[in-house]
Write a structure and sequence with these properties.
The complex is a heterodimer of chains A (384) and B (178). With 384 residues, chain A is α/β, with parallel strands linked by helices. Chain A has 2 domains: 3-12 and 270-383, Aspartate Aminotransferase, domain 1; 16-268, Type I PLP-dependent aspartate aminotransferase-like (Major domain) (Aspartate Aminotransferase, domain 2, 3-Layer(aba) Sandwich), CATH 3.40.640.10. In chain A, 40% of the residues lie in helices and 15% in strands. Chain A contains 11 helices and 13 strands. Chain A has helices spanning 16-29, 39-59, 73-84, 99-111, 129-135, 158-167, 252-268, 270-289, 318-329, 341-347, 365-383; strands at residues 3-4, 67-70, 90-94, 115-119, 140-146, 171-175, 194-198, 210-214, 294-296, 308-313, 331-332, 334-336, 354-358. In chain A, the strands form 3 sheets. Chain A has a 7-stranded mixed β-sheet, with helices on both faces. In chain A, strands 9-10-13-12 form a 4-stranded antiparallel β-sheet, covered by helices on one side. The longest helix of chain A is centred in the N-terminal third of the chain and has 21 residues, at 39-59. Chain A is globular and about 75 Å long. Chain A starts with a strand and ends with a helix. Chain B has a 6-stranded antiparallel β-sheet with strand order 1-2-6-5-4-3, sandwiched between helices. The longest helix of chain B is centred in the middle third of the chain and has 20 residues, at 71-90. The relative contact order of chain B is 0.16. Chain B is globular and about 50 Å long. Chain B starts with a strand and ends with a helix. Chain B has 2 domains: 3-94, TATA-Binding Protein (2-Layer Sandwich); 107-175, Electron transport complex subunit B, putative Fe-S cluster (3-methyladenine DNA Glycosylase II, Chain A, domain 3). The chains are: A alpha/beta (384), B alpha+beta (178). The complex binds pyridoxal-5'-phosphate and iron/sulfur cluster. The site of iron/sulfur cluster has 14 residues of chain B, from α4.
């Protein structure tokens, strides 16, 4: 079977109910939402709405029409950035961002003449909220931040940044790809105006699911135009949410699975999931301390990071470590730059990347023990 | 929800039916007591009200809604209705049920549901005059013939509910039309 420690890329396994929901939908419902008046189409529509409601409960969103479905966090971030920013706007971001934030910003810099400031984070990926506040200018429209780094797991101080942004009338876009489902997120408490999430990581949904919460009063230009369930008579994309941003047939099959994933989280409780991941992370970090020849990046403190641990073994390239872990130990991890070269520049690993362990709710202490033992053996061989 | 179609008068909006999972007949007088702008017809029974711009009628086993923005909007309103019914049901010991029509609609409210074209088909000079006479029982609803054209389907449904609620006869063939 092997040991899966790549949950930061996509979570695996999923709760049983997720598999069942996708199977049931494909087999028994199968129709698209918002498109027909017959009962099965309405059933599909009901599943989509129930998913919005579950996400609303998870993120503290009361008007769930403000949650729109997308294919993943990448699409959500593109919609938020390209739909919002106009020539002359200034954006503050961090030096730990994923390419899903950084590349759209770079494109907008060239094509729309926006300005971007990437506030430097320290070597462990942490961000001083005061640095963000200091970077705000009169033309700053948006602060775009990852909630937790997908390289070091470092959790950024969103509450403080949100407060500063609100004080200056600047919007806050949060990339919750690494935290939705595994860290508590309340859009009101954290002052989040735009929340981008992906369905296939901490939310336990299938790939190809994700969404964006858009605070009331914010109008984004849609990324795409096309068919929507209602208002077909209009020549332009309807103004009402969620239809305004949901042109084209939705991934209802995936959303059905996502619904069960989110229900699973609500039943277990995000706090309990967070506790379990903290316990696994703390246990792993502590065990790594005792191994000679391993350098761990990030805060090395489970309170300050999610279940993501990046490391290197001296004398071995990360891709070789990942290869040996897979071939000899059946342990699945990720090596390289993890689509976040900026973050690697920040922590000083741009030349080779890191080996990344993504711990998830379904991992066990025994699996962590096996990984630690394997790493110790590889490190010992590298030194001898 | 068991049925969705575009609104006849306003194809940008949708109308729909939804079935109740339980019979709310018994709760309806309590709902009537707490809802300020509802029109209750104890003989239906049914309870008609506006949720912002949407027209909602509750029956013991079903809900009809017109002028919802889209299906998400409709689901949100249905979920709001469900919460409200559950809430009223829970608090029913502290509510005095109201079995009567709470407030007689005003002429202006009735006017609001008329086509407002002043076409004089009803024999009155204006829709407002017709509304006043309707309230006085001197006119009957079917005398406003434009209301029975497909274009005014939602208005007609609302008017029929209201007229029935204030205790006037609604001709069977009209009342059953939808
Ligand atoms: C921090 C961060 N942002 C964005 C993404 C993009 O997510 P997705 O590939 O689901 O669009 C990821 C995951 O790869 C991520 O870790
Ligand atoms: S027939 Fe109807 S629309 Fe015409 S004036 Fe009378 S009330 Fe108004």
């Amino acid at each position: 079977m092997g040991i899966y420690l790549d949950n930061a890329a996509t979570s695996y396994p999923k709760p049983e109910t997720v598999y069942a929901a996708v199977d049931r939908f494909m087999r028994d419902v199968g129709s698209s939402s918002g498109r027909g008046a017959y009962r099965k189409a309405l059933l599909a529509d009901k599943i989509v709405f129930a998913t919005r409601e579950a996400l609303g409960r998870l993120f503290g969103v009361r008007d769930v029409s403000r949650i729109v479905f997308t294919a993943n966090a990448t699409e959500s971030l593109n919609l938020a950035l390209k739909g919002l920013l106009a020539p002359g706007d200034h954006v503050v971001t961090s030096s730990m961002e994923h390419n899903a934030v950084w590349r759209p910003l770079k494109r907008l810099e060239h094509e729309r003449g926006i300005e971007v400031t990437a506030v430097p984070c320290s070597m462990d990926g942490s961000l001083n909220p005061q640095d963000v506040a200091d970077a705000l200018r009169p033309n700053t429209r948006l602060v775009a931040l990852t909630h937790a780094s997908n390289v070091t797991g470092t959790i950024l101080p969103i509450g403080e940044v949100g407060e500063a942004a609100r004080r200056h009338g600047v919007l806050l876009l949060l990339d919750a790809a690494q935290t939705a489902g595994s860290c508590p997120i309340d859009v009101e408490a954290l002052g989040i105006d735009l929340l981008a999430f992906t369905g296939h990581k901490g939310l336990f949904g299938p790939t190809g699911t994700g969404g964006l919460y858009i605070r009331e009063g914010i109008d984004l230009l849609p990324l795409k135009e096309g068919g929507t369930g209602g208002e077909s008579i209009l020549e332009h994309q309807p103004n009402h949410l969620p239809d305004r941003y949901e042109a084209g047939t939705l991934n209802v099959c995936g959303i059905a699975g996502l619904s069960s994933g989110v229900e699973f989280i609500l039943n277990e409780g995000v706090d309990r999931i967070r506790e379990k991941e903290k316990e696994l992370t703390g246990y792993f970090l502590q065990a790594l301390e005792g191994i000679h020849g391993i350098e761990v990046y990030g805060p090395k403190d489970p309170e300050k990071q999610v279940g993501v641990v990046s490391l290197n073994i001296s004398g071995v390239m990360p891709q070789d470590v990942a290869h040996v872990l897979d071939e000899a130990y059946e342990i699945m991890v990720r090596s390289g730059l993890h689509c976040a070269p900026m973050a690697h520049r920040t922590i000083g690993t741009i030349d080779r990347g890191t080996v990344r362990f993504g711990l998830g709710y379904f991992n066990t202490i025994e699996e962590i023990d096996a990984a630690v033992q394997a790493l110790a053996e590889i490190a010992r061989k590298a030194l001898s | 929800m068991t049925y969705i179609a575009p609104c006849i008068a306003d194809p940008d909006k949708i109308r729909l039916f939804a079935e109740m999972s339980t019979d709310i007949g018994e709760v309806m007088p309590y709902l009537n007591a707490v809802m300020k702008n509802a029109t209750y017809n104890k003989n239906g029974p049914n309870l008609t009200f506006m949720k912002e711009f949407r027209l909602v009628t509750l029956y013991p086993r079903k809900i009809t809604m017109a002028k919802a923005l889209n299906t998400t909007d409709a689901w949100q309103v249905l979920s709001w209705i469900k919460d409200m019914i559950n809430d009223v049901h829970e608090r029913r010991d502290s509510i005095t049920p109201d079995h009567e029509l709470r407030s007689r609609p005003t002429a202006l409210q009735i006017y609001g549901w008329l086509p407002k074209t002043n076409c004089k088909d009803c024999g009155e000079l204006t829709c407002l005059a017709f509304a006043v006479k309707l309230l006085l029982g001197q006119k009957s609803i079917e005398q406003c013939s434009p209301l029975f054209s497909p274009e005014h389907a939602e208005r007609r449904e609302a008017m029929l509910e209201i007229v029935a609620a204030i205790g006037y006869e609604v001709p069977e063939k009209l009342g059953s039309q939808d």
